[in-house]
Specification:
Keywords: Repeat, Ribonucleoprotein, Ribosomal protein, RNA-binding
Distance between the termini: 167 Å
Structural class: alpha+beta
CATH architecture of one domain: Beta Barrel
Strand content: 25-35%
Low-confidence stretches: 1-58, 74-122
Number of helices: 13
CATH topology of one domain: OB fold (Dihydrolipoamide Acetyltransferase, E2P)
Shape: elongated
CATH superfamily of one domain: Nucleic acid-binding proteins
CATH class of one domain: Mainly Beta
Organism: Neolewinella litorea
Family: Belongs to the bacterial ribosomal protein bS1 family.
Number of strands: 30
Strand order of the largest sheet: 3-2-1-4-5
GO biological process, one term: translation
Pfam family, one: S1
Mean pLDDT: 75
Helix content: 25-40%
Length: 717
């Protein structure tokens, strides 16, 4: 066969060559180039290789037979000690390589013309026995070679990088683990990566393929990455499907714990450890627990797990079973797990029930802790439950008879009882006769007086009071009590002690905008209207006259026994000064007055004898146009006096106008008198018989002009 001059068969390798005449020397050269270097070749390997080296006239049957003999030899040596395992592995690989090389040589060989290679110089390609390869007969067609290549490739595992594969441990040598992936080369990992697993020859493990070949042509694997990826897959599955994963708590951190879940660290919050609050986190370090994944972060491959979720799911199943078997009135045993202001929560064995404070005791209690304690076992009755909302209402007092059913028969209307004040309302106070039996003392039953009673000021919670039973209804479980009926009604002899016109001294008990309430005796009192406080002064509020707690003298004006009311007066202790004021303050009279107070409408002024008068604000304007101020003293004119209505009205402006008018009248009167005197003098002059001189006539003329001018001024005015 003619070889193309442009192609070097040693470099290009694209020419077809014959494999009929491969010499033993050529085979040995090929094996030396293809077989991986080893530090030491054992005699067994050399012997095995010698069995598969084909001779110059080797046929396919000879090669196959040699390979079979080598494999049988390897099988016979499998029972030898562990020191020969490495040789077996290498020998097995060498056998496959030799056979593959033989086939490749047959398929890739090209016919090479005989040439003199004696002059070849020392390159690696020149040392190859190309002439021997050229003599090998090409016994397979192109189709046969392709079929054999496909069959060979099918026997190998297809390995992709960044993929998790299953591998079998084929040998463990000097801290290294040799893994068989059914690939053209075995994998090698340090034994330290299997510290979490006991392995031996034949154990199947998962590894991560980092590279199919490194710089040395070896398969690069990672056991750690395979574990992390598998762990992340399990975490994602748990998050998506709610599956349970196992993990070991390895350390404590701020706010929770760190758990190792298959080689991947996860965060276990303190609130997700248990359904009850956890104080000591250290107690969980080192424990293996089950978790559910409640949150993941795909970006940083981080996860949050929960053990509480598993407990709650178990409790949910128990809760369903317990609620399904509940009946109203059923008695259960529970453990007090929490106490609040409104009640207590009891654990009924997987489901919680609420015991309201009103269902703890028949009597009134201030707080559930007065009766219950944490972790206390108590028997309770099921009052009600809601299967949809999973709520159970419990009762403790229902296990005891109602106190009204065992109330003493001697307690009847008219009997006297002793009770403790347990509650105070605006309308009265409740007295507890015995736990669960209460009576109401209404504010109207506190005192015989009609004076309003403030129950919150009169009663104190916890104090003991005696009362008389007014009404009792055992069926409705109601009782009304009275404190005032413990004493005689003072209104029975009211006319004997407080007849109309009698004078008494009482104590001011209350002030209202319209009057003063005065207590004369226990249960006896009356009201002084604000208009009956003083004859002369007007008060905007009784507090301007007296204060609560002060003593005051009064006169009984009226008694209404039927309505139990009494009208009192204070000003009636003195004679009515208005009878004499009519002659002292007649209309038109002038008096000195002091401004006491004023507003936008008018002012109140203090007149002589303590009498107060009213002046409209427009009538308090002074001569300069300003309004009189408080505490300013000025003269006023009485413009209205009403004895019956006890009304006195004054005006300072009217006084100012009167003064102006009076002054003007005085000036006019004086001018008139002066003019009259002048007329009389002129008349006397005219009647004189004396002859007037020229000078006299001149003086007379001036006097006449003066009189005319004065008359004109008077006419203008």
């Amino acid at each position: 066969m003619q070889v193309d001059d442009d192609k070097d068969p040693q470099k290009d390798g694209t020419e077809e060559t014959s494999t009929d005449n491969i010499t033993p020397e050529a085979t040995e050269s090929i094996e030396a180039q293809a077989t991986p270097d080893t530090e030491e070749v054992t005699p067994e390997i050399t012997e095995t290789q010698s069995k598969i080296k084909p001779g110059p006239e080797a046929t396919d049957e000879d090669v196959a037979q040699a390979t079979e003999d080598a494999e049988e030899s390897l099988d016979e040596d499998e029972d030898e000690d562990d020191d020969k395992r490495s040789a077996k592995v290498i020998r097995k690989e060498s056998t496959r390589v030799a056979v593959a090389l033989t086939e490749e040589v047959k398929e890739e060989a090209v016919e090479i013309d005989e040439a003199d290679t004696s002059g070849a110089t020392g390159s690696a390609h020149d040392a190859f026995a190309w002439d021997a390869i050229a003599k090998i007969d090409n016994r397979y067609s192109k189709e046969e070679r392709e079929a054999m290549e496909k069959e060979y490739e099918a026997s190998m595992t297809n390995i992709q990088e960044a993929e998790i594969m299953s591998a079998k441990v084929s040998a463990i040598i000097d801290g290294d683990v040799i893994l068989d992936l059914n690939y053209k080369s075995d994998g090698l990992l340090p034994l330290s990566e299997f510290r979490d697993q006991d392995i031996e020859v034949g154990t199947t493990v998962e590894v991560y393929v980092e590279q199919q070949e490194d710089d040395r042509g070896q398969l690069v694997l990672s056991r750690r990455k395979a574990k992390l990826l598998r762990a992340w897959d399990r975490i994602r599955d748990s998050y998506a499907n709610g599956t349970v994963i196992n993990g070991k708590v390895i350390s404590k951190t701020k706010g929770g714990l760190i758990a190792d879940c298959g080689g991947l660290e996860t965060f276990l919050p303190g609130s997700q450890i248990d359904i009850k609050p956890i104080v000591d986190y250290d107690a969980y370090v080192g424990k293996t627990m089950e978790f559910k994944v409640v949150k993941i972060n795909e970006t940083i491959k981080n996860a949050v797990v929960s053990h509480k979720a598993l407990i709650e799911s178990d409790l949910a199943e128990q809760r369903e079973a317990i609620i399904a078997s509940l009946e109203r009135g059923q008695v259960l045993e529970g453990i007090v797990k929490n106490i609040t202001d409104f009640g207590a929560f009891l654990d009924l064995g997987g489901v919680d029930g609420l015991l309201y404070i009103t269902d703890i005791s028949w009597g009134r209690i201030n707080h559930p802790s007065d009766v219950l304690e944490l972790n206390q076992k108590v028997n309770v009755a099921v009052l009600d439950f809601d299967e949809n909302k999973k709520r159970i209402s419990l009762g403790l007092k229902q296990l005891q008879p109602h106190p009204w059913e065992v109330l003493d028969d001697n307690i009847t209307e008219g009997s006297t009882v002793e009770g403790r004040v347990v509650n105070i309302e605006d309308y009265g106070a409740f007295l507890e006769i015995m736990p669960g039996v209460e009576g109401l003392v209404h504010v109207s039953e506190v005192s015989w007086s009609n004076q309003p009673i403030n129950a919150r000021e009169y009663f104190t919670v916890g104090e003991t009071r005696n009362a008389k039973v007014v009404t009792i209804d055992r069926d409705d479980r109601k009782m009304s009590l009275s404190i005032k009926q413990m004493q005689q009604d003072p209104w029975d002899n009211i006319y004997e002690n407080f007849s109309v016109g009698t004078r008494h001294t009482g104590k001011v008990k209350n002030l209202t905008p319209y009057g003063v309430f005065v207590e004369l005796n226990d249960g006896i009192g009356g009201m002084i209207h604000i208009s009956d406080l003083s004859w002369t002064k007007r008060f905007g509020h009784p507090s301007e006259f007296t204060k609560v707690g002060e003593d005051i003298d009064v006169v009984v004006l009226e008694v209404d026994e039927h309505n139990r009311k009494m009208s009192l007066g204070h000003k009636q202790l003195e004679e009515n000064p208005w009878d004499s004021f009519e002659s002292v303050f007649p209309e038109g009279s002038y008096h000195e007055a002091t401004v006491l107070r004023k507003d936008d409408r008018g002012a109140i002024v203090q007149m002589p004898y303590g009498l107060e008068a009213y002046a409209p604000i427009k009538l308090m304007r002074k001569e300069d146009g300003s309004i009189a101020e408080v505490d300013e003293t000025l003269t006023v004119k009485v413009i209205e006096f009403d004895r019956d209505q006890k009304k006195l009205m004054v005006s300072h402006s009217r006084y100012v106008n009167d003064i102006r008018r009076e002054a003007k009248d005085t000036v006019v009167r004086e001018r008139r008198e002066e003019r009259e005197t002048t007329r009389k003098a002129v008349k006397q002059t005219n009647s004189s018989n004396e002859r007037s001189t020229l000078g006299d006539l001149s003086a007379f003329e001036q006097l006449r002009e003066q009189l005319n001018n004065e008359n004109e001024d008077d006419d203008e005015k």
